[in-house]
Amino acid sequence: MGQTRLFLTAPRADAEAIFKLLDARFDDQGLPISIFETDEERGLFEVSLYAEDDVETVATQVRETLAALGTAPALTLEPVPEIDWVSHSLAGLTPVRVGRFLVHGSHDRQLRRPGDIAIEIEAGLAFGTGHHGTTAGCLQAIARVLQSEAPRLALDLGAGSAVLAIAIARAARIPVLATDIDPVAVDVAKQNVRLNEVESLIDAHTATGFHHRVFSEWRPFDLIVANILARPLMGLAPGMARHLAPGGSLILSGILERQRRSVIAAYNGQGFRHIRTDAREGWVTIHMKR
Ligand SMILES: C[S@@+](CC[C@H](N)C(=O)[O-])C[C@H]1O[C@@H](n2cnc3c(N)ncnc32)[C@H](O)[C@@H]1O
């Protein structure tokens, strides 16, 4: 079932008060909530709540919660478009080299060089062959973070083929939780994990955002990588703050250059500071820390 976004627009102070109320009200249900600026000139902010089941009940609960404020802006409901990740997946199988990482198909094994961290991925149903600017941007950011940090536990949220989880597991030899909303992607991820012989390090599960008990069993993570899209990433900001250890690194991608400011603002609001942004093919990869 798809997600629905329930949102309202208000000036900054009202939006912040609404965000706080909703965050406290829906904390138990773990529904993602985000706040970000939509109109800089007029100082308008949008507060969004993402629900999957019982959307009408959630909408009623939101309206009841907002009644405490006296007057509240109108609530709008809109379905979150289903992204056809399969058509985003690239069929070409030219190997991709990013730093020490070499992502390749089975017929390109001979290209491995000593010292390479080789990741074998067949371009299958799940997004993530290393060719896309967002995946390559994440690989580059992972390589840089691992030069100066020694994470003990990592999360790849929206793992697709699990290329990033495999990169982390192979480079850092640490346990990695790989999750994806799409069960087909999770099956492909599991196959790739076996193919790359990192079954002892990677655990893959189907989960939407942080909705799975496995997260509370694993958290806090020292490194989280999420290559999804700007809007869901903004919705996931409070969950990221709850699951990343203080001092931990967060790598976000799937963000267009023009969306960069809004994403950073949503994460600043959750106690993250911006470390660095890298651009590739019109997409940006953002490194933040808590
Ligand atoms: C752009 S692909 C990234 C795949 C891989 N991590 C990479 O970097 O190549 C995004 C993946 O996120 C998954 N996804 C989208 N929204 C999600 C959500 N709310 N929770 C978990 N996974 C999600 C999609 O199914 C898709 O496999």
From TrEMBL:
Q: Where in the cell is it found?
A: Cytoplasm
Query: Pfam families attached here?
Result: PrmA
Q: What is its EC number?
A: 2.1.1.-
User: Which GO terms of the cellular component aspect does the record hold?
Assistant: cytoplasm; ribosome
Q: Is S-adenosyl-L-methionine a UniProt keyword of this protein?
A: yes
Catalytic activity annotation: L-lysyl-[protein] + 3 S-adenosyl-L-methionine = N(6),N(6),N(6)-trimethyl-L-lysyl-[protein] + 3 S-adenosyl-L-homocysteine + 3 H(+)
For this entry, list what GO says about its biological process: methylation
InterPro entries assigned? Ribosomal_L11_MeTrfase_PrmA (IPR050078), Ribosomal_PrmA_MeTrfase (IPR004498), SAM-dependent_MTases_sf (IPR029063)
**Lineage: superkingdom:** Bacteria
> CDD domains of this UniProt entry?
AdoMet_MTases
Major site of localization recorded for this protein: cytoplasm
Keyword set, alphabetical order = Cytoplasm, Methyltransferase, Ribonucleoprotein, Ribosomal protein, S-adenosyl-L-methionine, Transferase
Name the enzyme group at the top EC level: transferase
Q: Which Gene3D superfamilies match?
A: Vaccinia Virus protein VP39 (3.40.50.150)
- Example of a GO MF term: protein-lysine N-methyltransferase activity
List ligand-binding residues for S-adenosyl-L-methionine: 135, 158, 180, 227
Family, according to the entry, reads as follows:
Belongs to the methyltransferase superfamily. PrmA family.
PANTHER family (alphabetical): ELECTRON TRANSFER FLAVOPROTEIN BETA SUBUNIT LYSINE METHYLTRANSFERASE (PTHR43648:SF1)
As for what it does, the entry says: Methylates ribosomal protein L11.
Q: Which NCBIfam families match?
A: PRK00517.2-1
Q: What is this protein called?
A: Ribosomal protein L11 methyltransferase
Q: Which organism is it from?
A: Nitratireductor pacificus pht-3B
Q: Which gene encodes it?
A: prmA
